[in-house]
Amino acid sequence: MQEKLLNLKEIALKEIKDTLSIEDVENIRVKYLGKKGEITAILKEMGKLSNEERPIIGKVANEVREAIESEITSKKEELKNIEKQRKLLEEVIDVTMPSKKVRVGKKHPISQIIDEISEIFMGMGFSIAEGPEVETVHNNFDALNAPKDHPSRDMSDTFYINSELLLRTQTSPVQIRTMKNQELPIKIISPGRCFRFDAPDATHSPMFHQIEGLVVGKDVTMAQLKGTLNMFVKKLFGEETKTKFRPHNFPFTEPSAEVDVTCFKCNGEGCPMCKGEGWIEILGAGMVHPNVLRNCGIDPEVYSGFAFGMGVDRITMLKYEIDDIRLLFENDVRFLKQF
Ligand code: PHE
Fold first, then answer.
1. Cα–Cα distance for residue pair 301/303, rounded to 1 Å
2. How many CB atoms lie within 10 A of CB 14?
3. In this predicted model, what pLDDT tens digit does every residue of 261-275 receive, in sequence order?
4. Among 4-8, 139-143, 288-292, which stretch is predicted with the lowest mean pLDDT?
5. Which is nearest to 176 in space by CA: 306, 293, 302, 257?
6. What pLDDT, on a 0 to 100 scale, did the predictor assign at position 138?
């Protein structure tokens, strides 16, 4: 029996040595030391031994079992290490490999222009005022001195919510809100979205952007309006830019003007950009109408003001040479990432 045990030990140790996987090692353990294992089977026979033989065989059996167990343990350890080594080699990270590009978004071209224009005016001491896109008919038309039969009030030009509310057609109602709520003197600009009932085409969009400007105080003059706008266009379009004030009519300003700037592409010589004119229209402006001041509780005998308004989308299109306003609102990344 002793011989049998030692024999089994030899075979088992050899088998363990030759295994290549932890799974196989485990199978060997079951084969020899498991409940129905070969060593176990021999140990079960021990009862049949004489009293002298039993301790001797018992000792050998124990040694054999321990030898096999310790071999199994170290073999498992060894195999685990090999596996770990293999994984380490396999999962090496090549730090020189080019990384995946993170696509960082950026501001929409219209927001960029709004920021640029706002910076220029803030540099001249203006602060930013905001108003709601859903306005009262009163603020959008009545308080701005628009006659009851003014064509812009028409249902076919304006999005009405009901008889008292509409989507503002201009940023000018912010003038009313500011004059009613702020102390004089006032010096604000107000960028924001406006809405008009226009069918979209290359130059029209039912939603567009304006920046309004308003200065009210004592001795505010037309000369200051001109000076402010001259300074502004030079900063925005370049030092050589000149302005031209053409008489116009707005209900809320008197006198009123449309303001053209020399084409920044051809410097006023005439090119496809300015349609050969040399001038590009970008602003409406004028001295705040006494009725408007009065509607806001300001005495036109003591105070005066000037106001101006410009189309941000149009300026954005001019600056970036975009030929279709719809491109600005389709939000196609291939278009937007150019700016
Ligand atoms: N609100 C006018 C428009 O939409 C522009 C403007 C603003 C004109 C302020 C004069 C003064 O056309």
1. 6
2. 10
3. 999 889 889 998 889
4. 4-8
5. 293
6. 98
CATH code given to domain 109-336: 3.30.930.10
Taking the centre of ligand 1 as the mean of its atom positions, its distance from the CA of residue 76, in whole angstroms, is 85
Quick: pLDDT tens for 143-165.
999 999 999 999 889 999 999 99
Sketch the domain layout of the chain as residue ranges. Answer: 2-90, 109-336
Query: Residues 172, 307: contact at Cβ < 8 Å?
Result: yes
pLDDT digits (tens, 9 = 90+) for 180-190: 999 999 999 99
For the chain, give the percent of residues with pLDDT over 90: 65
**Mutation test of ligand 1: which of 144, 157, 250, 281 has the most ligand atoms closer than 8 Å to its C-beta?**
250
Report CA dihedral (164, 165, 170, 175) to the nearest 10 degrees. Answer: 70
Q: What is this structure's pTM?
A: 0.73
Write phi, then psi, for 198 (nearest 5 degrees): -115, 140
Ligand 1 lined by 225 (C-beta under 6 Å): no
In this prediction, residue 195 carries a pLDDT of: 98
List the residue whose alpha carbon is closest to atom 12 of ligand 1.
284
